[in-house]
Amino acid sequence: MSFKSIGLKIQLAREEKGLSQEQLAKTMGCSQSALSNYEKGKRRLYLSQLEALAKILDKPLDYFVESISAGNTNEDDSEKESSRRKIETMLDKLDEKQLLQVIDHINYLQWKKNGGK
Q1: CA 57, CA 98: separation in Å to the nearest integer?
Q2: Tally of CA atoms within 13 A in the half-sphere of 64 that contains its CB
Q3: What's the pLDDT score for residue 37?
Q4: Which of 3, 64, 81, 104 makes a 20 to 30 Å CA pair with 111?
Q5: Contact 3, 34 (CB under 8 A)
Q6: CA 8 to CA 85: how far, in whole Å?
Q7: pTM above the 0.70 mark?
Q8: Which of 49, 94, 32 is closest to 105 using CA atoms?
Q9: Domain boundaries defined on the chain
Q10: pLDDT, position 77
Q11: Which residues are CB-neighbours of 25 under 8 A, at least 6 positions away?
């Protein structure tokens, strides 16, 4: 499991809990920029820090360290699944009108990918 995968899970859990980076960083006792680097996978977390995060975010420790897809060792698939979970978290916060706009945008992206056909 890469630091980037762990970072994505931290971000998802933080957003699910409704916390900003600043709020979580303050609770953890670190700077917002340090937390940002954890979430981007640019900075290594120690086990004690990960345990503190798990407690604050109400997640078991293995949530952060186990593979997103059971038996999946492909990092690209893992990151794609993390992106999907992030999108799901964001979609849950939208109203019906906004969801329809998202659907329209996805349809546009698919149309564009198919060469406008």
Answers
A1: 28
A2: 28
A3: 93
A4: 81
A5: no
A6: 10
A7: no
A8: 94
A9: 3-113
A10: 66
A11: 31, 32, 34, 35
Q: Which residue type is seen at 29?
A: G
- Tokens 């979580």 appear where? 24
Closest residue by Cα to residue 85 from 19, 10, 22: 10
Q: For residue 78, which phi and psi values (nearest 5 degrees)?
A: -65, -45
Residue 10: both structure tokens together: 């931290």
Q: Which token pair is 106?
A: 């996805």
- Tell me the helices (H) and strands (E) count for the chain, helix number first: 7, 0
Length of the chain: 117
- Give residue for tokens 């709020």: 23
For domain 3-113, give the CATH superfamily. Answer: lambda repressor-like DNA-binding domains (1.10.260.40)
Each residue's pLDDT, cut to its tens digit, for the chain (117 residues) gives 678 888 989 999 999 999 999 999 999 999 999 999 999 989 888 888 999 999 999 999 888 887 644 444 455 566 777 788 888 888 888 899 998 998 888 888 888 888 877
